């Protein structure tokens, strides 16, 4: 074997060993450390190379290299496999739902593009600051029914982080979500009358924004984060997910439900797994992108972003199509989901 071949094999083995160790750390430590939280969040970038190494290792009989990359390759297949399966979704839809973290006033151009191109029936918005709301109150007559949540207090006493629901369907009621952990953003169940769209008289929807990470923070409230530093924010995020999972199961027992928002979690982070899990603590929700999406949909950061943290989740509605919109100045890209009533 040439020197270059030996070097390539050594580098592949090193990559496999590091990726396997990272997977183990994520499995054991979860989101409780900055390193494992970030590793889970960005798994799309460091796992797929294992899929390319496996056939090369087999062809060259580099069994030691194959052993080191096998676990990352399996994990990458689980992550990417559902995104490339053919024949999923399609056909007519009954309801178009979009979620978008507008990042205060920075994402207002993205909101304009979202409304003009996709014309969602329901918009689930996050980080709608008072300044953004003031600019939006007289715009977009397509949405005569609007609900705004209270802005959550930052550690410095300011409030600029509220959620909102805009709808072409009538809003009939709203109620606060109780039982959330300290440091969580407030949330409400907003009930829509979906009969004009062929749905039920009561369709509960939630605009979610789970606790933001504070990478490297160790003290409560640093960086104006009410959820605290890395470890505490991770606990808050998981506790939020468990409460929303419980609530989703309760709501789904009566009919369809839609949750959407910025969950600050990707496929390898615990909160999203809790929301979509089928176990006793899972929400049993369908992740629309995992069901019918065909692109990585890395919504956080510049295009392409570094992680998929913005999701539409549902129970009692069939996913039809899924798309990523344009950020337009926001730190997030919107997600658009076409849904169909289950017959």
What does this protein structure show overall?
- The protein is α+β, with helices and mostly antiparallel strands and 343 residues long.
- It folds into two domains: 82 residues; 247 residues, Endonuclease/exonuclease/phosphatase (Deoxyribonuclease I, Chain A, 4-Layer Sandwich).
- It is built from ten helices and twelve strands.
- The strands form two sheets. It has a six-stranded mixed β-sheet. The protein has a six-stranded mixed β-sheet with strand order 5-6-7-8-10-9.
- Strand 7, helix 8 and strand 8 form a beta-alpha-beta unit.
- Helix 1 crosses helix 2, helix 4 packs across helix 5 and helix 8 packs parallel to helix 9.
- It is globular, with a radius of gyration of 21 Å.
- About 1% of the residues have low confidence.
Task: Characterize the main sheet.
Answer: 6 strands, mixed
The count of β-strands is: 12
Level-2 CATH architecture of the largest domain: 4-Layer Sandwich
How far do the termini sit from each other? 62 Å
> What number of structural domains do the residues give?
2
Give the helix tally.
Answer: 10
User: How are helices and strands ordered from N to C?
Assistant: HHHHHEHEHEEEEEHEHEHEEE
CATH third-level topology of the largest domain: Deoxyribonuclease I, Chain A
Quick one: CATH class of the largest domain? Answer: Alpha Beta
């Amino acid at each position: 074997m040439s020197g270059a071949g030996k070097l390539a094999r050594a580098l592949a083995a090193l990559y496999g060993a590091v990726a396997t160790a990272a997977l183990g750390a994520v499995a054991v430590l979860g989101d409780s450390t900055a390193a494992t939280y970030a590793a889970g969040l960005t798994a799309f970038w460091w796992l797929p190379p294992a899929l390319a190494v496996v056939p090369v290792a087999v062809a060259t009989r580099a069994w030691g290299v194959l052993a080191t990359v096998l676990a990352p390759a399996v994990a990458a297949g689980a992550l990417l496999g559902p995104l490339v399966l053919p024949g999923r979704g399609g056909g007519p839809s009954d309801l178009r739902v979009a979620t978008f973290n507008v990042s205060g006033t920075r994402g207002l151009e993205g909101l304009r593009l979202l409304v003009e191109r996709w014309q969602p029936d329901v918009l689930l918005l996050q980080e709608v600051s008072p300044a953004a709301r003031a600019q939006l109150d007289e715009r977009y007559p397509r949405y005569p029914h609007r609900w705004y949540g209270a802005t959550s207090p930052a550690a410095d006493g300011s409030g600029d982080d509220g959620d909102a629901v805009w709808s072409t369907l009538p809003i009939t009621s709203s109620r606060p979500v109780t039982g959330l952990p300290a440091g969580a953003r407030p949330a409400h169940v907003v009930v829509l009358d979906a009969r004009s769209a062929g749905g039920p008289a009561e369709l509960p929807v939630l605009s979610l924004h789970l606790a933001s990470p504070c990478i490297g923070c160790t003290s409560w409230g640093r960086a104006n984060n009410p959820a605290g530093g890395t470890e505490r924010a991770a606990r808050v995020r998981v506790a939020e997910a468990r409460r929303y999972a419980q609530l989703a199961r309760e709501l789904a027992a009566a009919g369809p439900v839609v949750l959407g928002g910025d969950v600050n979690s990707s496929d390898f982070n615990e909160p999203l797994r809790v929301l979509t899990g089928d176990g006793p603590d899972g929400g049993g929700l369908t992740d629309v992108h995992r069901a019918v999406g065909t692109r990585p949909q890395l919504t956080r950061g510049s295009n392409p972003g570094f992680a998929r943290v913005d999701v539409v989740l549902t129970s009692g509605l069939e996913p039809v199509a899924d798309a990523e919109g344009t950020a337009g100045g926001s730190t997030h890209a919107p997600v658009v989901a076409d849904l169909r009533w289950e017959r």
